[in-house]
Amino acid sequence: MLKRIPNILTISRILIIPVVILIMSFEQQDALSSRAAAILFAYACITDFLDGFLARLLKARSHFGVALDPIADKLLIASIMIILVHYRRADFLPAIAIVCREILVSGLREFLAKLRVSVPVSGLAKLKTIIQMAAIFILVLGDEGSGFHAMNFIGRISLWIASALTLFTGYAYLKASYKYLLETKKEK
Q1: What's the gap between Cα 64 and its chain centre?
Q2: Inter-axis angle of helices 63-86 and 31-57, to 10 degrees?
Q3: How many other CB atoms sit within 10 Å of the CB of residue 50?
Q4: What's the CA gap between 180 and 68, in Å, rounded?
Q5: How far apart are CA 35 and CA 48, in angstroms?
Q6: Average pLDDT of the chain?
Q7: What are the C-alpha distances in Å from 36 to residues 49, 81, 138, 150, 163?
Q8: CB distance 75 to 92 below 8 Å
Q9: Are the CB atoms for 89 and 143 separated by under 8 Å?
Q10: Whole-model pTM?
Q11: Which of 29, 70, 118, 145 could disulfide-link to 141, CB 3.0 to 4.6 Å?
Q12: Are 33 and 141 in contact (CB under 8 A)?
């Protein structure tokens, strides 16, 4: 049973997404709805860390978890970014940069996995993830949920910083993958 916990956490992260979107879709965002959405988003971020940590700790790595974890991450980030942009709580350019980078890196990882090549996650990419999730949390909480009238501004600035790191780490990942892309082209 313990070995199922990482997968249960991953599935719970996916199931939370429509709830957060529903809460954020209310016409009037008040303190309660903003806080509820932010708490659920924070839970999803925590499970993102915990599922991998527990899978390693319990030696419970599964094909299901390996496949579903990055999908859950991309679904969470992309869907929340879309709703934040829709309600003008986030700027379009950093949001699209983040979503496009996530798609690019997912595609490259899938390609490299077929070649049995692993590109380790850099420390800068981990920092990017932390800043990105913090920025999204701040934007979901917003001025309404925090009672602090500069929270939206702080969230937007944080998202721009996260998007700059996103582009930089995405480029680094592409650069690290480039030689494998060239090798497969030469083989054809």
Answers
A1: 19
A2: 160
A3: 17
A4: 25
A5: 20
A6: 91
A7: 20, 17, 13, 19, 25
A8: no
A9: no
A10: 0.90
A11: 145
A12: no
Residues of the chain with pLDDT under 70: 184-188
- Which token pair is 9? 């956490």
With H, G, I as helix, E, B as strand and everything else as coil, classify residue 119.
coil
Residue found under tokens 């879309």: 82
Yes or no: say if 52 and 68 are a contact pair by the CB < 8 Å rule.
no
- What pLDDT is attached to residue 40? 97
Give the span between the Cα atoms of 181 and 2, in whole angstroms: 39
pLDDT computed for residue 186 by the predictor = 62
Question: Domain-by-domain residue ranges, the chain?
Answer: 2-187
Residue 6 Ramachandran class (φ > 0 left, ψ -120 to 50 alpha, else beta): alpha
The CATH code of the domain at 2-187 is 1.20.120.1760
> E strands, the chain, where?
none
The string of pLDDT tens digits covering residues 120-139 is 788 998 999 999 999 999 99
Cα–Cα distance for residue pair 53/6, rounded to 1 Å:
8
What pLDDT is attached to residue 2? 83
How big is the chain by its Cα radius of gyration, in Å?
A: 18
